[in-house]
Amino acid sequence: MTTRSEFLKRSVKLVSGALATALDSKILEEIRAIPISIFPPGAVSDFTSVCTACGDCLPVCPEQAIKIEIDELSGKLLPRIQPSKAACTMCQDTPCISACKIGALIEDQNQTFPEIGLAIVNKTTCMAHNGNACLVCYDACPMKRSALKMKLNRPVIDSDICTGCGVCEYVCIIEGEKGIKIEAL
Amino acid sequence: MGNVGRRDFLKTAAASVAAASLLASCQTKEGEPLSQKMGGVEDQLGIEWDKSVCRFCGTGCGVLVGRKNGKIVATKGDPECWSNKGLNCIKGYFLSKILYGRDRLTKPLIRKNGKLVESTWDEALDLIASKYSEILKTHGSDAVAMFGSGQWTIFEGYAALKFMKAGLGFIAKDGVGSNHLDPNARMCMASAVAAFMRTFQSDEPMGSYEDIEHADTFFTWGANMAEMHPVLFSRIIDTKMKNPDRVKIIDLGTQYTRVSEEADLYLEFQPQTDLAIANYFAHYIIKNKRYDKQFVEDHLVFKKGETNIGYGLKDGGADIPKTAGKMEKITFGEYKKFVAKYTAKHTSKISGVPEDKLKQAAEFISDPTRKVCSYWTMGFNQHTRGTWVNQLVYNIHLLTGKISKPGMGPFSLTGQPSACGTAREVGTFVHRLPADMVVKNEAHRKIAADIWKIPVEKINPKVGLHTIEMFRATETGRIKILWTQVTNPYHSMPNLNRFTKAAKEQDIFIIASDVYPTRTTEVADVVLPSAMWVEKEGAYGNAERRTQHWNKIADSPGEAKTEIWQMYEVAKRLKVDEKTTVADIIYNFNQDNYYEELWEEYRSFTLGIGKDLAPYKVLREKHGVVWPYVARDKAVNGKIDFSDVWDDIENTEPNGFTSVKWRYNSKYDPFAARFIKDHPERSFKDGIVFYKAKKNDYRATVLAVPYEPPGEVPDKEYPFWLCTGRVLEHWHTGTMTMRVPELRRVMPRAFVNFNPEDAKKYGINRGDLVRVTSRRGSVVFPADINGRAIPQKGSVFIPFFDESRMVNEITLDQYDPISKEPDYKKCAVKVEKV
């Protein structure tokens, strides 16, 4: 497993070197070497120890996007979201947070919707990045033109606005390695 | 690893913009061979590749088609095709899947007791032939119509033209062929054709897609290129990326689209007021002395058009004056005076565009240092004043002399893969013969009859019924046989209910040649299963005059057969006398060499007149050839000798040929060079000559026509404008793209797109069902708000691909009185939440 310092070093190198609106498969593979789950909206920073996997947040999700599964990093059974199977659609009243009675999911008064991840475009597999005009993720984004913009005919994510809801990953037309995917933060 | 590091890394890495050029891995010069091996060579995956053309829009992207075990398994953009340089779009990406929808038609069907039942080819063809014989012998050729397509291959279009205009005359009691042959291209670019002919006396653009890489200023007029011509838009974006400060995109439209989003300036105008805006630009150019004085003097003639020309709303065009197409000569001074009333203030009042935006755009278009290209498609063509508005943009380019030069020119985009190659060049229109000739002209009929080796009397001199009137005539019983090929009119006709009703109630024999069940096969009496795309040899001609050939690469399923075979078999069953059939007369080609012989006969129409097509053998070799494809020596081209002007032509090939990228410019076009040499009085410093405009002393026409309102405008009862069109994922009536699972999944149904303010006013949320009603009908659509396009306030947009909710049940069958092209972009509707 990559250590924290190695990871940071590489980030710095990348950040100061050639930057891109999207990352290629190789870098994404390295990032994904650390398997971090995407937890439901409002997950507290020590979610893996606070959450008891009671399952109260599951039935209230209108998309049934939350499933209790093994979280690879902690080895525990925990509620999490896999956007390629079912994505969060950012309900205004966040029923999952209201359902959580133990404080594992909490509302953030400063944000309109809690950040659950960040969409990253895969430069290697994204159709638009490879010259095949496509608008599928852009069209589906609940915050299009702000979180997901098309720049120079390619999808670009505004990381300050994107909540990582995962609708883009869900609709991406590419089979196998999707052209856009949510990375946990 | 902690959260902070990962978060920072991801956020920073993903934030900045440094996208690479999309065209990086392409040839630097057209014709340069790349590594791809064609035909009969397998790659490491066991896939055998061959060249073809995309089946969808008029961009005409070259595609490489991969076959494995007899099945087409992959397609990719062809980097050697200079139209798309290897680029593609989402539809092209899934292209191979259009062949393998589960409900492909594989057997002929005949309607018996109201139901379509499977039959044999012999039974179907015998039935069709007996119907033709009976109707032609009792009613004459006036009762027989064919509705074809800009998706016909060039071979098919030519075969259909001969079938209708040459063949039927040998059977019909009146002894003449039928001119009731129109393509669906009538609904697509007839206005562009009329404007080309009225301005330059020669159809199709002077420039090429290559202009995109040379230009620095792009005007898009009601053209959502990002969705409808995505590959060309990618090329524009690429040009902008290379020089972001200099390159400007100015978008003019009635809704905010993906193009508006990328544009430097967006002008949102009230429907139909493009007429006023174009006149304002002309006024601005003249007032600020931005016109090219020499160009005006040397190359232009000014004319005034007839006004108040009607909207084709009454059957038979009863509301259209006979003089609708008239143009009368005026002076430059009179023209100047005419456009002077289109001041910024007046134009802003009509169009709703703020004065400062109008001025900014006018500054860009008139700036003598800028290389300006204008692009348009259906926004202009499907317009009750479509011919006018096409011409008004030519006015701008002509006044400023920004035409026929690299990076400068007006460019009419097309919607279908062979609208140019088949419908326009072959001339499958009610008034046309091949190579811009017309049936009305005796000399033209003579040329055609000579090539076809038939008596000239067999060609009908009377113009046939154009699309709208053809379908209106199915209501009255005048048309008794209608054969539709590669098209779906009972989905795409405006004011659809009236025509579907006629098809069901009238005694009309409808034959539909198609590949999938459609709304048209639903009303047909005989359905003929057809081979599609690479299941047959073919050639398409795209918007930049590029002809592209492909080989038969796959087998067609079941008993599906090509349209050429279908027409041949019917013609074979039509007996002229004991010994001769119609097929003997019109399809007298050697079976082993059928396509080549057919091509070379058709090609002979085009030689020596500046529309010269490439020989069959060259087409098979090259990844598309732009016409005129001209040989230096008379011995090769057979008509004209260019050897004395050849050395002055740029872009000639070592083999003694050249493909003309900029017509009318003697630097690139041997015909212009030849003409100037032979007519020294028409020799000018810029080397440009409109050599086809003989009637106007070789001058292009600048037309003075006013703003006139559309045929139906919103009122209290029907307060919304309705505009219809396409979306990126689906093409036309969705018969192919709706059978690609991926495309269907991302865009499963049509929607009604609202401006967010209107939606709020009517309490409509995204996904709500909304009933959209016009004076013609009523259809329910789910609402879309803040979609990829945002209509302006007071207007809604609905795509037409969805056969389960057909917007054409509410559109209006109004048309441009000059081009006869219907206007699908403007009518009045009301909306209510269901």
Give a concise summary.
The complex is a heterodimer of chains A (185) and B (834). Chain A has 185 residues and is an alpha+beta fold.
What does this structure look like?
The complex is a heterodimer of chains A (185) and B (834). With 185 residues, chain A is of the alpha+beta class. Helices cover 23% and strands 16% of the residues of chain A. Chain A has a domain at 21-33 and 113-183: Alpha-Beta Plaits (2-Layer Sandwich), CATH 3.30.70. Chain B has 834 residues and is α/β, with parallel strands linked by helices. Chain B has five domains: 20-100, Phosphorylase Kinase, domain 1 (2-Layer Sandwich); 140-184 and 419-518 and 559-600, Rossmann fold; 190-412, 3-Layer(aba) Sandwich (Dimethylsulfoxide Reductase, domain 2), CATH 3.40.228; 611-691, no CATH class; 720-811, Barwin-like endoglucanases (Beta Barrel), CATH 2.40.40.20. Chain B is built from 30 helices and 32 strands. In chain B, helix 13 (344-351) crosses helix 14 (355-366). The longest helix of chain B has 19 residues, at 121-139. At the A-B interface, helix 1, strand 3, strand 4, helix 6 and strand 5 of A face helix 1, strand 4, helix 2, helix 8 and helix 9 of B.
**What is the alpha-carbon Rg of chain A in Å?**
17 Å
- Average per-residue pLDDT of chain B, rounded, comes to 94
Shape of chain A: globular
Interface with most residues: A-B, 52 and 48 residues
Q: Might you state the CATH topology name of the largest domain in chain B?
A: Dimethylsulfoxide Reductase, domain 2
Going across the biggest sheet of chain B, name each strand in turn.
6-5-19-18-17-7-8
Strand content of chain B: 15-25%
Oligomer state equals: heterodimer
Number of strands of chain B: 32
Order of helices and strands of chain A: HHHHEEHEEHEEHE
What is the name of the CATH class of the largest domain in chain B? Alpha Beta
Name the average pLDDT of chain A: 84
Helix content of chain B: 25-40%
Distance between the termini of chain B: 53 Å
Question: How many β strands of chain A by DSSP?
Answer: 7
Q: Numbering strands along the chain, what is their spatial order in the largest sheet of chain A? A: 1-2
**Poorly predicted regions of chain A:** 1-21
CATH architecture descriptor of the largest domain in chain B:
3-Layer(aba) Sandwich
